[in-house]
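Exercise 7b. C-alpha cells:
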C-alpha cells in the first residue's frame, strides 16, 4: 500500500511542470515572433526534451499507481464476496425472513461493486489530483501571485457546481430508480407467471400497472435531466469566465510591466498560471464526486460487514454444542412452545404446544391449513427457535445440541420440494452430506467428483463405462442414489430420462413435474438413512399408486426410524402410531388413529370429511380381478414430465441470470428498424430538432475557442505595446465571457430538450416492449433462453440504449462531429504546413483512445459474464435455504462459490495489467504530440512562414478535434449497443405472436387476414358485462397428438379423444407425468397440438387467432402464484377483461374460497401487499386466493389443477360446497389425486401414458379399472 501512496502523490507533480515548460516555450515563441534573430533552436529543443522526459515519468507513475489500486480493489472485492456469501448461508431462517425482496443480491452485486469502485484506481486518481492541485497553486503563487489569488475563487464554484449537481442528480435518480424498480418487479412477476396472465387475459391490467409505475417516474426524470443540463452549462460557463478574467488581468500585468509600473510578468508565466490552475481546478471538480463514491463505498462496506460480522443465532457450520446427542432412542418433547415469525410479529403461530414424539414410531400432525404444523417441524429442524418454551431431546434442550450433528441425523422433505440446478444424481447424493451415518462418502460428494461423472455421461459416454473408470466411493454413491430413488418410486422415470440419473433437473427442478420433484426430494432424504425422517406433505403431488408404494417403503423403515409427517390426506397417515391434531397453534387432541376415531373428536370429523361415501360405491372388488377397460389399453410406456419445457419458465426468478437474450442477432431489416424507431421518436421531433440546433452551437464553440486562444496569445505579445495589450485583453476577455454565456444557455436548453425527449421515448419503448412480451406465446417464451430474467433486458438495457439516441448521446455525437470538421478545416486554412505534420498524429491519439476503450469495454463485459455464475449460485442457495440448511450443504455451496470466482479473478488480474497500460498511454500521448507541435511550429515561425497567432490557433484546433474523435469513439460502444438493441426491440414489437402460433403447415390456411395480436384481441373482448353468458360451455379434444417444442421426439398426448359436455363435472386422474396438466394447456391454447383439434363451445380454437374464448375460462394452477401487488389486485386480476370488480364482488369471491377471514385479520386487509410469489401466505392460503381469483370471473368453464391439494379437509369441503353452486351453469374439469374431491364427478377420465385408458363414473371405474380401484383402496378410510 505504501508504494501506491508514494507513486500516487508523485503523479500529481508532472502536470504543473509541464505548465512551466509550456510557458517557457510560449516566451521563446514570443521572442521569435518579435525578432527571428532571437531564435535559438537548441533552447527550444531542450524544453521539448523536458516535455518528453516529464511525459515518460507521468506515464510510469500513472500505470503503476492505477494498476496497484485496481489490484487492491479486486482483491478486496473478492474477500468481500467470499465472506458475505459464507455469512449469508450460515444465518438462520429468521434473519432471511426479515430481509426485503432482492436485498441480498443487491448487496452481493451492487454493494460489492460500490466498494470495489470506491477502492479502485479512483483513489489513485483522487490523491494524484489533490497532489496536482496543491502543486499547481504553489507554482502559480510563485509565478504570478495576483492572477493565482484571483483564480482561487473558481475552486468553490467548481465544487459547488459538482456537489450540488451530484446531490440533486442523485436525489432525482433515486426517485426514478424506485419507480422503475417497481415497474421492473411487476414485469418480472408477470413474465414469471405468464400462464396465469394468458389464462385470465390479464395483459391490459398488468400493462396499466406497469405503465403507471413508469409514468410516476417521468417528472423526476425530467428534473434529473434539467439538473444535469444546468451542471454542464455552468461547468463551461465557469471555465470560459475564468479564462476571460485571467487573460484580462494578465494583459494588464504585462502592460504595466512594459510601462515600468510593475514587476516582471511574461505572457508565458500568465499562460502557465492560467493553464495549470484552471486545469487543476477543473479536474478537481471532476473528481469531487469521487467523495460521494468513497462515501457510498464506506456505507456499502458497513452494510456488508454488518452481515459478515453477524453471528448466526442458529449456525449449521459452527462446532458449538453437544455433538454426541443421539436421536435413535429419545423422546422429542415440546413443552409449552410458543412461536411468532419475525416477519409477522403480531401473529402468534404456536400458542403453548405440548406433545411428545416417541422414538422409532410414526407421529403424524394433522389439522387445518395455517394451524402451525409446518412451524412445528421447522422448529424441530432448528430453522427457528421457540419464542418461549422448550423442545427436549430426551432430557436435553435442543438448543444445546450441535446444529450440524442434529440435522445430520434427520432427513427432511418439504411441502414445496426444493432442488438445486444440478443433475438428479447430485441432488440425491447431497443427502449424504452432513449425514452422521455416511461421513466417509460425504467427502466424495464435497470434492465435486460427481460433477465430472455427470459431465462425461451428458457428453455421450455410457454410464457403465464411466463408472467402471471411477473411484469405488463414487460407484457406491451412485448405487446408493439409485436404491434411494427406487424406494421413492422414482427410479423408473429417472431411467427414462435422456441421460438417466445424470439428467439435469433445471432451475428449481423446473424440468420435472411436481410429483417427480417430490420423489427426488424424498430420495434425497432416504439416502441419508436418517434416525428422524420429517415429511411435510411429502406425497401431496403424487398419484395414489406412487403414494402407496412410498408408503410401503416407509413402513419398512418405521421400526428403526422415527417418522414425523404432516398430511392433509388422511389416508397417508392411517397407519401412524400417533396422530396429533394441531388447530390454531394448539394441540387439539392426540392419540392413536383408533383412539381418536373412538373419541369422535376433531380427527374423526376430518376422517368423515374425507371419507368416500360408500353409498355411492356398489362394491369394492378385489384388486386381483382383471379390469375391463372402457378405452385404450393401459400398457403404455410412461411419459416424461409434462412440464419439462414449461416449468423452467414458470419457476425462474428474475434476479437469476440466464442465457442473455441480447446475444441473439438482429433479424429485422435496417429500413424496418429505422421506421419503427422513428415511430417512437416522432412525437418528440420538435424537441430533438431544438436539441440538435443547440449541439451545433456547442460544437462550433469548441473551434471558436481555438480561434480566441490563438488571437489572445498573439495579441498579448509584448512586442504589441502596452495600450494594444490592454485593449486586446479586455476585448478577448469579453469574447471568452460571451462564449461562456452561449455555452451556458446552449447546454441548458439542449440538455432539457434531449432529456424530455429521451424520457418520453423511453416510456413508450418500455410500455410497447412489455405489451409485446406479454403478447408472445408460451412456446416463444419457452425457447432460446427466454427466461424472465433475460427478457427483462428488453425493458431495461435495450429500451434505455435506444432512448439514448434521442438524448445526450446523439447531441454529443453531433457536437463532436461539428467540432472535428471545423477544427481540421480551420487548421488547414490558417496554417496548412503546420497542420499537415500534426494531422498524421491524430491516428496515434485515436489508437491509444481506442485501445483504452476496447480494453475497458472487454474487461467490463468479461467481468460481468464471469461473475454471473456467482450471482446465480447465490440466488439458488438463498432460494433453497431450507434445503441447504437441512442437509448441511453450506460447505458444499461455499466450495462451489470459491471455485466459481477463481477463474474470473485470474482473468481480471491479466486484464488489469494490460488495460492500465493503455490507460496511461491515453493520458500521456497527447503531451508527446504537443512536444512535436512546439518543435515544428517554432521552426515555421522562425522561418517567417507563419505567425505565433496562427500556430496557437492550429494547435488547440487540432487537439480539440482529436479529443472530439476520442469522444466519438467513446460513444461507439453506446451507438453499437443502441443499434443492436433497436433491432431486437423492433423484432419484438413487430413479432406477430398469433402468426407464430400458426407456424405449422396444418394451420397456415386458417390464418384470417388482418388479425390482431393477442393483446389487441383481448382489448376487443366485451367489457359491458362481467358475465358474457350464463350458460356453461362444452369442450372437446379430438385426436390430439402433442409434443413439447423443447422435446419434439417425446409424445406427451397420443391421439387423445375426450368430450366434456356443458354443465358437467369432470375429473382427470392418473399417475403424475401422464399428461393431465398438458390437457389443460391444450384447452387454454397455451400450445397448439401437433395434430388434432380442440373445440370450446363448438369453436375449433386451433383454427382461429382470437383469444376471447379464454374470457369464459378460469384456471386454478397446480402451484398457486400471486403477483406483486395488493391482495385485492390479485383477486381482481381474475375478472373478465374490461370489468373492474367492486369491493363487494372481491369479498364475495374470497368468502366462497374460504379466505375472507384470513385477509380481514391482516393489518392492511385487502390492501396487504403480496411479496414476490405471495410467500408470506401459507401454501393453503395461496391456493384459496387462487381459487378466489377464479371464482370472481364467474367462468363458464372452470379448470382446477390440484386446486385443493394443500387444504385441510374442512376447507376442502367448504370449497366443494362453493363449487356446487357453479354446477349446471359452469363446466368444471378437475385434476386430482385426492379421489374424495372428484368421486361425485359426472365422468372421470383415467389418463396414463398420454392416453385416456379408462372413463366412466366413480362406480363404473371401480368395477372396470384396476388402476382406479387400487387408488380407491389406498385412499379408503374405512377404519
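Sequence design result:
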Amino acid at each position: 500500500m505504501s508504494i501506491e501512496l508514494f507513486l500516487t502523490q508523485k503523479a500529481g507533480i508532472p502536470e504543473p511542470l509541464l505548465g512551466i515548460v509550456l510557458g517557457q516555450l510560449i516566451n521563446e515563441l514570443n521572442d521569435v515572433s518579435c525578432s527571428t534573430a532571437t531564435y535559438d533552436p537548441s533552447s527550444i529543443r531542450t524544453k521539448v526534451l523536458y516535455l518528453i522526459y516529464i511525459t515518460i515519468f507521468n506515464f510510469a507513475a500513472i500505470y503503476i499507481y492505477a494498476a496497484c489500486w485496481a489490484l487492491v480493489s479486486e482483491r478486496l472485492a473478492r474477500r468481500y464476496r467470499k465472506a458475505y456469501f459464507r455469512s449469508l448461508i450460515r444465518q438462520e431462517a429468521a434473519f432471511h425472513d426479515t430481509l426485503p425482496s432482492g436485498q441480498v443480491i443487491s448487496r452481493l452485486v451492487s454493494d460489492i461493486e460500490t466498494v470495489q469502485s470506491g477502492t479502485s484506481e479512483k483513489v489513485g486518481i483522487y490523491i494524484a489530483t489533490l497532489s496536482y492541485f496543491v502543486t499547481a497553486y504553489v507554482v502559480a503563487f510563485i509565478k504570478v501571485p495576483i492572477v493565482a489569488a484571483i483564480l482561487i475563487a473558481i475552486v468553490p464554484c467548481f465544487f459547488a457546481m459538482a456537489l450540488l449537481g451530484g446531490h440533486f442528480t442523485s436525489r432525482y435518480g433515486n426517485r426514478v430508480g424506485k419507480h422503475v424498480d417497481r415497474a421492473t418487479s411487476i414485469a418480472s412477476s408477470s413474465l414469471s407467471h405468464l400462464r396465469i396472465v394468458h389464462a385470465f387475459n390479464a395483459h391490459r391490467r398488468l400493462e396499466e400497472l406497469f405503465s403507471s409505475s413508469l409514468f410516476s417516474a417521468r417528472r423526476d426524470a425530467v428534473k434529473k435531466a434539467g439538473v444535469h443540463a444546468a451542471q454542464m452549462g455552468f461547468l463551461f460557463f465557469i471555465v470560459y469566465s475564468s479564462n476571460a478574467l485571467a487573460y484580462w488581468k494578465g494583459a494588464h500585468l504585462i502592460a504595466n510591466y512594459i510601462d515600468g509600473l510593475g514587476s516582471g510578468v511574461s505572457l508565458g508565466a500568465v499562460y502557465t498560471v492560467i493553464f495549470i490552475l484552471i486545469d487543476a481546478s477543473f479536474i478537481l471538480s471532476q473528481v469531487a464526486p469521487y467523495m460521494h463514491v468513497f462515501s457510498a463505498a464506506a456505507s456499502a462496506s458497513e452494510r456488508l460487514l454488518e452481515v459478515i460480522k453477524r453471528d448466526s443465532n442458529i449456525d449449521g457450520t459452527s462446532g458449538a454444542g453437544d455433538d454426541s446427542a443421539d436421536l435413535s432412542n429419545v423422546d422429542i418433547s415440546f413443552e409449552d412452545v410458543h412461536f411468532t415469525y419475525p416477519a409477522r410479529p403480531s401473529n402468534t403461530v404456536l400458542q403453548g404446544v405440548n406433545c411428545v414424539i416417541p422414538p422409532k414410531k410414526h407421529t403424524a400432525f394433522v389439522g387445518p391449513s395455517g394451524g402451525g404444523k409446518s412451524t412445528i417441524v421447522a422448529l424441530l429442524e432448528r430453522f427457528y427457535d421457540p419464542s418461549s418454551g422448550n423442545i427436549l431431546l430426551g432430557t436435553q434442550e435442543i438448543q444445546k445440541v450441535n446444529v450440524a450433528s442434529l440435522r445430520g441425523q434427520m432427513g427432511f422433505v418439504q411441502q414445496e420440494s426444493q432442488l438445486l440446478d444440478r443433475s438428479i444424481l447430485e441432488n440425491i447424493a447431497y443427502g449424504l452430506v452432513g449425514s452422521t451415518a455416511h461421513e466417509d462418502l460425504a467427502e466424495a460428494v464435497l470434492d465435486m467428483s460427481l460433477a465430472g461423472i455427470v459431465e462425461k455421461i451428458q457428453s455421450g459416454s455410457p454410464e457403465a463405462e464411466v463408472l467402471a473408470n471411477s473411484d469405488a466411493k463414487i460407484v457406491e454413491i451412485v448405487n446408493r442414489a439409485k436404491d434411494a430413488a427406487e424406494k421413492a418410486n422414482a427410479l423408473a422415470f429417472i431411467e427414462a430420462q435422456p441421460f438417466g440419473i445424470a439428467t439435469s433437473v433445471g432451475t428449481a427442478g423446473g424440468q420435472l413435474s411436481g410429483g417427480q420433484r417430490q420423489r427426488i426430494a424424498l430420495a434425497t432424504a432416504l439416502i441419508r438413512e436418517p434416525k428422524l425422517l420429517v415429511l411435510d406433505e411429502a406425497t401431496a403431488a403424487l398419484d395414489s399408486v406412487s403414494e402407496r408404494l412410498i408408503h410401503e417403503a416407509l413402513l419398512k423403515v418405521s421400526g428403526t426410524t422415527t417418522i414425523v409427517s404432516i398430511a392433509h390426506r388422511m389416508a397417508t397417515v392411517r397407519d401412524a402410531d400417533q396422530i396429533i391434531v394441531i388447530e390454531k397453534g394448539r394441540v387439539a387432541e392426540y392419540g392413536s388413529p383408533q383412539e381418536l376415531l373412538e373419541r369422535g373428536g376433531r380427527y374423526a370429523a376430518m376422517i368423515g370429511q374425507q371419507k368416500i361415501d360408500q353409498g355411492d360405491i356398489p362394491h369394492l372388488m378385489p384388486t386381483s380381478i382383471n379390469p375391463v377397460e372402457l378405452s385404450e389399453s393401459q400398457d403404455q410406456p410412461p411419459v416424461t414430465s409434462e412440464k419439462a419445457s414449461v416449468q423452467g419458465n414458470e419457476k425462474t426468478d428474475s434476479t437469476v441470470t440466464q442465457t442473455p437474450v441480447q446475444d441473439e442477432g438482429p433479424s429485422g431489416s435496417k429500413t424496418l428498424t429505422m421506421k419503427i424507431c422513428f415511430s417512437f421518436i416522432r412525437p418528440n421531433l420538435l424537441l430533438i430538432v431544438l436539441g440538435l440546433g443547440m449541439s451545433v452551437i456547442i460544437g462550433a464553440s469548441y473551434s471558436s475557442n481555438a480561434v480566441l486562444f490563438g488571437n489572445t496569445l498573439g495579441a498579448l505579445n509584448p512586442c504589441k505595446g502596452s495600450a494594444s495589450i490592454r485593449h486586446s485583453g479586455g476585448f478577448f476577455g469579453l469574447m471568452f465571457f460571451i462564449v461562456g454565456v452561449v455555452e451556458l444557455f446552449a447546454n441548458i436548453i439542449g440538455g432539457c430538450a434531449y432529456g424530455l425527449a429521451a424520457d418520453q421515448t423511453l416510456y413508450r419503448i418500455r410500455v410497447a416492449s412489455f405489451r409485446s412480451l406479454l403478447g408472445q406465446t408460451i412456446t416463444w417464451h419457452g425457447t432460446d433462453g427466454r427466461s424472465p430474467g433475460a427478457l427483462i433486458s428488453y425493458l431495461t438495457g435495450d429500451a434505455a440504449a435506444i432512448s439514448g439516441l434521442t438524448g445526450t448521446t446523439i447531441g454529443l455525437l453531433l457536437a463532436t462531429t461539428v467540432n472535428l470538421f471545423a477544427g481540421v478545416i480551420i487548421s488547414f486554412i490558417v496554417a496548412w504546413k503546420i497542420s499537415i505534420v500534426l494531422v498524421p498524429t491524430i491516428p496515434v491519439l485515436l489508437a491509444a483512445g481506442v485501445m483504452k476503450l476496447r480494453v475497458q469495454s472487454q474487461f467490463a463485459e468479461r467481468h460481468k459474464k464471469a461473475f454471473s455464475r456467482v450471482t446465480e449460485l447465490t440466488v439458488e442457495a438463498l432460494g433453497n435455504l431450507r434445503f441447504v440448511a437441512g442437509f448441511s450443504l453450506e460447505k458444499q455451496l461455499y466450495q462451489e462459490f470459491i471455485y466459481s470466482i477463481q477463474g474470473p479473478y485470474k482473468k481480471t488480474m491479466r486484464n488489469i495489467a494490460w488495460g492500465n497500460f493503455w490507460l496511461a498511454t491515453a493520458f500521456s500521448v497527447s503531451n508527446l504530440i504537443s512536444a512535436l507541435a512546439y518543435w515544428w511550429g517554432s521552426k515555421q515561425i522562425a522561418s517567417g512562414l507563419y505567425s505565433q497567432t496562427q500556430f496557437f490557433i492550429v494547435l488547440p484546433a487540432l487537439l480539440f478535434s482529436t479529443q472530439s474523435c476520442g469522444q466519438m469513439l467513446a460513444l461507439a460502444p453506446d451507438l453499437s449497443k443502441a443499434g443492436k438493441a433497436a433491432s431486437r426491440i423492433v423484432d419484438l414489437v413487430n413479432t406477430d405472436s398469433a402468426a407464430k402460433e400458426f407456424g405449422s403447415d396444418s394451420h397456415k390456411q386458417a390464418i384470417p387476414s388482418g388479425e390482431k395480436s393477442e393483446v389487441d384481441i383481448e382489448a376487443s373482448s366485451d367489457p359491458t358485462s362481467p358475465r358474457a353468458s350464463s350458460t356453461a360451455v362444452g369442450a372437446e379434444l379430438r385426436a390430439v397428438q402433442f409434443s413439447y417444442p423443447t422435446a419434439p421426439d417425446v409424445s406427451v398426448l397420443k391421439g387423445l379423444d375426450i368430450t366434456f359436455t356443458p354443465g358437467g363435472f369432470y375429473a382427470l386422474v392418473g399417475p403424475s407425468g401422464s399428461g393431465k396438466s398438458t390437457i389443460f394447456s391444450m384447452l387454454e391454447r397455451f400450445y397448439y397440438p401437433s395434430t388434432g383439434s380442440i373445440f370450446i363451445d363448438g369453436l375449433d380454437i386451433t383454427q382461429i387467432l382470437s383469444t376471447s374464448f379464454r374470457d369464459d375460462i378460469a384456471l386454478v394452477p397446480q402451484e398457486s402464484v400471486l403477483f406483486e401487488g395488493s391482495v385485492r389486485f390479485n383477486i381482481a386480476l381474475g375478472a373478465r377483461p374490461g370489468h373492474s370488480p367492486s369491493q363487494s364482488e372481491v369479498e364475495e369471491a374470497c368468502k366462497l374460497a374460504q379466505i375472507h377471514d384470513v385477509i380481514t385479520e391482516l393489518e392492511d386487509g385487502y390492501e396487504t401487499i403480496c411479496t414476490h410469489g405471495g410467500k408470506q401466505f401459507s401454501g393453503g392460503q395461496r391456493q384459496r386466493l387462487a381459487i378466489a381469483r377464479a371464482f370472481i370471473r364467474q367462468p363458464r368453464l372452470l379448470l382446477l389443477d390440484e386446486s385443493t391439494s394443500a387444504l385441510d379437509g374442512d376447507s376442502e369441503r367448504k370449497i366443494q360446497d362453493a363449487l356446487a353452486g357453479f354446477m349446471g351453469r359452469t363446466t368444471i374439469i378437475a385434476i386430482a389425486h385426492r379421489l374424495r374431491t372428484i368421486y361425485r364427478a359426472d365422468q372421470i377420465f383415467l389418463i396414463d401414458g398420454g392416453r385416456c385408458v379408462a372413463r366412466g363414473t366413480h362406480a363404473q371405474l371401480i368395477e372396470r379399472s384396476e388402476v382406479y380401484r387400487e387408488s380407491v383402496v389406498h385412499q379408503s378410510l374405512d377404519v
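Instructor comment: The longest helix spans residues 722-775. Confidence is low (pLDDT under 50) at residues 614-668, 993-1028.
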